[in-house]
């Protein structure tokens, strides 16, 4: 037997050794696996929850979260229907436990004995016989067009939460279809397990219970820089919706641009909750730039950050950039605003999962499903 191996990009190996401080063997393995970009290497070296992709990148996620919250508010019956393999059982368990944290005592069901894979009409009819409600499929459902249509006739809403490929030209006409393999779903990583997709739904519900859900927010930083005798100020801001970045503002301020920059910044931040790091310092810089009457109404993350993450105490954004390794994994030059975004995301997810007792138990279930279904251990699957 003769092994045929691709040639290793030696320059990529040297770059990874130098940039990430890993040994040459590890770098060679990553290069052979075509995993040499910073955004790829990250998942082999880090396990921080903030590196998981945002569940609201799924375009259908908000509808699913809102429907689940309505079910909780109205005390509706909810059935979680999964599959009988390991991925399906862990996905079912994960979602049932997550719904319990939301106050929903969900029923659950997986195929038994000779019952076919996927949501079946007998199960659907039996559930509907007790009145209206909500069915959430996990690790199945993407091929259940007839069953989803029948559910609609019976007044049952269905959320399809699956990871299998769509075999038909269109997905079932459900209230929400969350599947990373559907074209146009919005999610950039296709290889989640069924339990991984269920975890994304649970995470979205967790964030949905915080004050950040649907709240237009913005991050703002003002950094003074000096090159030689030239002194300038860099103003950066990021718009976020459910922690998904929706826009950026970046201006290097000179004396003749003050008024125009202020007007554009005001439009960018309009009607948003503004979060900063070091409110007093930022307002001092704003007054120096825009006049003594200038005051930006904002929420300071520094104290809360120090409380939840003691290593952050007393740090500047420049120091946080190094601590959180923002520059290390950035594909393009990062700034203080990127450190602020990383800190904001870490704080948001820490608070979101607190009512669930933290994310660890849910992640353990997602891990089991991911490994059992032999999903590729790359990208965020390595954190899951």
Order of helices and strands: HHHHEHEHEHEEHEEEHEHEHHHHH
By DSSP, the count of extended strands is 10
Measured as a percent range, the helix fraction is 40-55%
Q: Which CATH class of the largest domain?
A: Alpha Beta
Structural class: alpha/beta
CATH topology of the largest domain: inorganic pyrophosphatase (n-terminal core)
Mean pLDDT across residues: 93
Number of domains: 3
Main beta sheet: 5 strands, parallel
CATH architecture annotation of the largest domain: Alpha-Beta Complex
Strand content range: 15-25%
Total number of helices? 15
Question: Looking at the structure, what is the overall shape?
Answer: globular
Strand order of the largest sheet: 2-1-3-4-5
The Rg value, from CA coordinates, equals 24 Å
Flag low-confidence runs.
none
Concise synopsis of the structure shown:
This protein is an alpha/beta fold and 384 residues long.
Describe the structure.
This protein is of the alpha/beta class and 384 residues long. The chain folds into three domains: 10-45; 55-210 and 359-378, inorganic pyrophosphatase (n-terminal core); 217-348, Ribonuclease H-like superfamily/Ribonuclease H (Nucleotidyltransferase, domain 5, 2-Layer Sandwich). It has 15 helices and ten strands. The protein has helices spanning 10-20, 24-32, 38-45, 61-74, 86-101, 121-128, 145-153, 194-208, 258-269, 279-290, 302-308, 317-323, 326-329, 336-352, 360-372, and strands at residues 77-81, 107-109, 133-138, 156-161, 176-178, 217-227, 230-241, 244-253, 273-276, 299-300. It has a five-stranded parallel β-sheet with strand order 2-1-3-4-5. Strands 8-7-6-9-10 form a five-stranded mixed β-sheet, with helices on both faces. Helix 8 (194-208) packs across helix 14 and helix 12 crosses helix 14 (336-352). The longest helix has 17 residues, at 336-352. The model has no long low-confidence stretch (mean pLDDT 93).
């Amino acid at each position: 037997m003769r092994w045929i191996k691709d040639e290793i990009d030696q320059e990529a190996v040297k770059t990874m050794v130098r940039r990430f401080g890993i040994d040459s063997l590890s770098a060679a393995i990553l290069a052979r696996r075509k995993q040499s970009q910073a955004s790829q290497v990250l998942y082999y070296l880090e396990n921080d929850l903030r590196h998981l992709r945002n569940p609201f990148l799924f375009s259908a996620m908000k509808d699913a979260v809102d429907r689940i919250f309505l079910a909780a508010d109205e005390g509706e019956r909810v059935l979680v229907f999964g599959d009988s393999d390991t991925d399906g059982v862990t996905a079912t368990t994960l979602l049932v436990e997550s719904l319990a944290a939301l106050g929903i005592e969900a029923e659950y069901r997986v195929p038994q004995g000779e019952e076919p894979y996927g949501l079946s009409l007998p199960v659907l009819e039996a559930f509907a016989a007790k009145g209206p409600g909500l069915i959430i499929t996990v690790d199945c459902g993407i091929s259940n067009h007839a069953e989803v249509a029948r559910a609609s006739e019976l007044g049952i809403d269905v959320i399809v939460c699956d990871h299998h490929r769509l075999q038909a030209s269109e997905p079932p006409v459900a209230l929400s279809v969350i599947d990373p393999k559907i074209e146009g779903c919005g999610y950039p990583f296709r290889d989640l397990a069924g339990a991984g997709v269920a975890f994304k739904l649970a995470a979205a519900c967790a964030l949905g219970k915080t004050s950040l859900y649907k709240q237009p927010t913005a991050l703002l930083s003002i950094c003074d820089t000096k090159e030689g005798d030239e002194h300038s100020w860099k103003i950066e801001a990021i718009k976020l919706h459910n922690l998904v970045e929706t826009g950026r503002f970046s201006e290097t301020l000179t004396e003749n641009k003050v008024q125009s920059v202020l007007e554009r910044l005001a439009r960018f931040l309009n009607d948003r909750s503004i979060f900063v790091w070091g409110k007093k310092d930022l307002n001092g810089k704003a007054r120096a730039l825009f006049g003594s009457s200038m005051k930006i109404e904002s929420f300071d993350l520094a104290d809360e950050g120090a409380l939840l993450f003691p290593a952050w105490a007393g740090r500047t954004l420049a120091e946080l950039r190094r601590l959180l390794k923002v520059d290390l994994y950035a594909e393009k030059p990062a700034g203080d605003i990127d450190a602020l975004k990383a800190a904001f995301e870490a704080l948001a997810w820490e608070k979101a999962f607190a009512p669930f007792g933290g994310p660890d138990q849910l992640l353990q279930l997602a891990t089991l499903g991911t490994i059992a279904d032999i999903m590729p251990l790359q990208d965020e699957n390595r954190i899951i």
